[in-house]
Amino acid sequence: MTLRTEASIAVLAFVLGLTPAAAQTTQQTQQKPSATTEAPKTPVSGQIMAQDVNTVLAKDFLGLAVYSPDKLKIGNINDLIMSKDAKSVEGFVIGVGGFLGIGEKNVALKIERLQISNTPEGAVLLTMDAKKEELTNAPSFKSKRDMDLEKQAADRTRNAPVRPSTNN
Fold it and tell me: What are phi and psi of 148, to 5 degrees?
């Protein structure tokens, strides 16, 4: 590199707030074409390239509040119930009652009970034709995991060895 070019780089670096070494590296990088070019990406069968405007991601759906027709909050979506073949959402689990998560119980309902719309700002709005008191008084939802744990606990109790009484 000539003395004049080095001086020009130093002045340019000063103006841009770079060190002369960084300015030289930047100039050298810009002069050299990239040796590697990225191959075009090929979608796989069944791949969705972009979310459709008429869909909702589960992660955005979970935790959303559900409101009654009179605009009172019923509870929040805690989970979704999917078919085993993962082709449909069968229902939703809503947490009702309690305060700050204490005393809350889960109630599951068929997905048809839920109406999905948008607020004027474009946010998802969930409503259903039920009142909070109805769901608070409804039986709690038990997942398969909950039922399996209950069965295991009952089996342990039933199969526990009987200890002889120590009272005389």
Answer: -65, -40
107/67 Cα distance (integer angstroms): 15
Task: Look at residue 99 in the predicted model and tell me its pLDDT.
Answer: 74
Check: CB of residue 3 under 8 Å from CB of residue 10.
no
- Residue 22 maps to a domain: no
The pTM of this model reads 0.65
Residue 59 within a domain: no
User: What is the C-alpha to C-alpha distance for residues 117 and 67, in angstroms, rounded to an integer?
Assistant: 12
pLDDT (tens digit per residue) in 31-84: 555 567 888 888 899 999 999 988 888 898 899 999 998 889 999 999 999 999
Per the document, the length of the chain is 168
Instruction: List beta partners, residue 162.
Output: none
Whether 81 is covered by a domain: the verdict is yes
Q: Distance between CA 44 and CA 110 in Å, rounded?
A: 33
